[in-house]
Amino acid sequence: MKMAISFICGVVICFLILYGVKPVLPAFAETATYEDESENVTQSLTGLLPDIEKIYREALTMPFIQAESQIYDEDIAGFYRSLMEKTGLTDPGTSSQNQ
Q1: Cβ atoms of 58 and 92 closer than 8 Å
Q2: What distance, in Å, lies between the first and last C-alpha atoms of the chain?
Q3: DSSP characters over 19-79
Q4: 0.85 exceeded by pTM
Q5: Signed CA dihedral, 14, 16, 17, 19: sign only
Q6: Fewer beta carbons below 10 Å: N end or C end of the chain?
């Protein structure tokens, strides 16, 4: 019984949240440029999100770049450097797919 009441309360709360957000969303009159205005709203919202791809790429490559500074043998360091260049791990901003 408690679970049914909790479910119903959850549905009611979600409905109230969605109903409460409706006045906050921008409303536009029907015009020919309606699509352009909605794109601007979407772009402004996506500007608030962090760049997940950049964060992931830096998290992936940073240990390899740091490990390179700990290699003191020149032959191994040269091999490691060429391996990192071939795989695209030398620069966090680039990917091996773009090459």
Answers
A1: yes
A2: 60
A3: HHHTTTS----S-TTHHHHHHHHHHHHHTTS--HHHHHHHHHHHHHHHHHTT---HHHHHH
A4: no
A5: positive
A6: N
| Stated length of the chain | 99
Query: Half-sphere exposure of 77 toward its Cβ, with a 13 Å CA cutoff?
Result: 8
Own/partner long-range contacts of 36-39 (Cβ < 8 Å, ≥24 apart): none
If residue 93 lies in a helix (H) or strand (E), which one and from where to where? none
Query: Alpha carbon of 91 to those of 7, 77, 80, 96: distances in Å?
Result: 50, 17, 14, 10
Decide if 95 contacts 57 (C-beta within 8 A).
Answer: yes
Question: How many C-alpha atoms does 90 have within 13 Å on its Cβ side?
Answer: 11
Reported as a single tens digit per residue, the pLDDT across 12-56 is: 998 888 777 766 666 665 555 545 555 555 566 667 777 888 888
Structure tokens at 78: 């040269």
Predicted pLDDT of residue 56: 86
